Amino acid sequence: MRSPTDRPAPEDVVAISGLTRRFGQATVVDHVDLVVPRGVAFGLLGPNGAGKTTMIKMLITLLAPSDGTATIAGCDIRTQPARVRRLVGYVPQLLSADGSLTAEENLLVFARLYHLPRSQRRARIDEALASVGLEGSARELVRNFSGGMVRRLEIVQSMLHRPPVLFLDEPTIGLDPAARRDVWEELRGVTAREDTTLFITTHDMEEAEQLCDQVAIMSQGRLVAHGSPDELKAQVGPDASLDDVFIAMSGGADSAAKGGFRDVARGRRTARRLG
Ligand SMILES: Nc1ncnc2c1ncn2[C@@H]1O[C@H](COP(=O)(O)OP(=O)(O)OP(=O)(O)O)[C@@H](O)[C@H]1O
Question: What are the protein's UniProt keywords (predicted)?
Fold first, then answer.
């Protein structure tokens, strides 16, 4: 694994250096260094309030860093934000599809936002719907979709411009087990076909095991561990699960208890809208 202090190499899709964000007196992302190579599925794990969403928002240029910086496919988030936005797809925790539009209308909105040439839009939208099994629901209102269908639509709408890196903030929160498995399968399929680097946040260890080649554990704004799931499990003990790693390295219940009202309320809102 490359050290974050090495110079970014072309194969490093995400290279983060000293990235920090403060809200008032609170430092919620604290001098994070991290390198994610091309083609890797990377999972940022951590309890509620650890700083995962704040980190993603800085990487996709929705939030300015207080200190430090990062590059996405070689472009600096501080000095080249417009270029970075063309290089990333983002599926937020909260709703990004419009329930009052059909699936294909939602995709058309994103095709325009991403400035896809008019001549390519129809084919790209049809291909996107078919790639996640939604071709039969193209003209249905999204408000009538199941939670899993909404997530599948959000994944392909955020990839219409074929970004090299796709960020997903807790992609299966609020979904039932069958829908979660469907979303994992579709995610693995579309990202492999498009050669997309995946950067997800989750506190679901099964999700991390199923999807991620590499994981890092974030606790109170700092990265406290980074490696493959097997490497981290071996550090904790011969029979350790990823849950054991999470509890041992994130400070367990003490750290989880720090997630405040804002964090819990957001999780519940997401679960409600997908349920
Ligand atoms: N705009 C803001 N103003 C003040 N504090 C904020 C703001 N956004 C986030 N925070 C605080 O920063 C901390 C980190 O929040 P963040 O959403 O990044 O955590 P998280 O790891 O993504 O949590 P979750 O797993 O619940 O999504 C929390 O304590 C949160 O309340």
Answer: ATP-binding, Nucleotide-binding
